[in-house]
């Protein structure tokens, strides 16, 4: 669970986003954001190794604030996806799946969706996540991918390019209660069948 001071820090950061301010307030970041995140990750160790994203943005090629206004935590992220938790003023994001699959991964995903048996397994895995309150990323393609008919029975699935599910809860008092960690675990656990499906039918990137 994150304390109210974590949200106070994020509000102050939004109003004072520069490296000098962050250096002066780094202890607040470490105590109120990072320590709870590390405790959360320790309680989720069975899901995989944690990776904490650095707080600094790369501003060399993009116009963006120097400090990230969110705390990102990836768990068990491998070649065929993983889990993700993010805290920002927009809320707490819980997500999982395969973010930005490569072209060869998308090709294998579409081939699996084209197969009725494997597609049914995908739908069963997806339903476990949606029953837990997560939703799939919306389709990005406007039309069927090349090689697939426009009237394909699973067209919406074929149009997907983000193979993820997610839920964003608004910041509130619930976030500061110990039950928040339990809620996060339950939602992440619901993604496990989808990750198993991706690992079996999509697998690691093998090309561009």
Describe, in plain words, how this protein is organized in 3D.
The protein has 208 residues and is of the alpha+beta class. The protein has a single domain (4-201), classed as BirA Bifunctional Protein, domain 2 (2-Layer Sandwich). Helices cover 43% and strands 18% of the residues. The protein is built from 8 helices and 6 strands. A 6-stranded antiparallel β-sheet has the order 1-2-3-4-6-5, covered by helices on one side. The protein starts with a helix and ends in a 7-residue tail after the last helix. 26% of the residues are buried.
Structural class by secondary-structure content: alpha+beta
Strand coverage percent: 15-25%
Q: Give the ordered list of helices and strands.
A: HHHEEEEHHEHEHH
Shape label: globular
Number of strands: 6
The span between the termini is 39 Å
- CATH architectural label: 2-Layer Sandwich
Tally the structural domains.
1
Helicity, as a percent range: 40-55%
The top-level CATH class is Alpha Beta
The DSSP helix count reads: 8
Widest sheet, order of strands: 1-2-3-4-6-5
Largest beta-sheet characterization? 6 strands, antiparallel
Report the CATH topology name. Answer: BirA Bifunctional Protein, domain 2
Q: Show unreliable segments.
A: none
What is the CA-atom radius of gyration, in angstroms?
A: 19 Å
Give the averaged pLDDT, no decimals.
95
């Amino acid at each position: 669970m994150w304390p109210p001071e974590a949200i106070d820090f994020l509000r102050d950061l939004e109003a004072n986003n520069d490296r000098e301010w962050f250096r002066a307030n780094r202890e607040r970041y470490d105590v109120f954001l990072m320590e709870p995140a590390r405790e959360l990750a320790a309680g989720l160790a069975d899901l995989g190794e944690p990776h904490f994203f650095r707080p600094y943005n790369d501003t060399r090629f993009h116009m963006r604030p120097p400090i990230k206004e969110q705390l990102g935590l990836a768990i068990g992220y491998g070649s065929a996806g993983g889990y993700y938790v993010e805290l920002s003023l927009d809320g707490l994001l819980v997500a999982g799946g395969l973010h930005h699959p490569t072209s060869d991964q998308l090709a294998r995903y579409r081939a699996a969706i084209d197969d009725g048996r494997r597609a049914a397994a995908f739908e069963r895995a997806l339903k476990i996540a949606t029953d837990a309150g997560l939703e799939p990323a919306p389709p990005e393609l406007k039309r069927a991918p090349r090689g697939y008919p426009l009237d394909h029975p699973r067209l919406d699935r074929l149009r997907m390019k983000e193979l993820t599910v997610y839920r964003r809860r608004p910041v509130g008092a619930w976030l500061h209660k110990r039950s928040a960690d339990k809620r996060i675990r339950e939602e992440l656990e619901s993604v496990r069948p989808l990750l198993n499906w991706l690992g079996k039918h999509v697998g690691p990137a093998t090309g561009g």
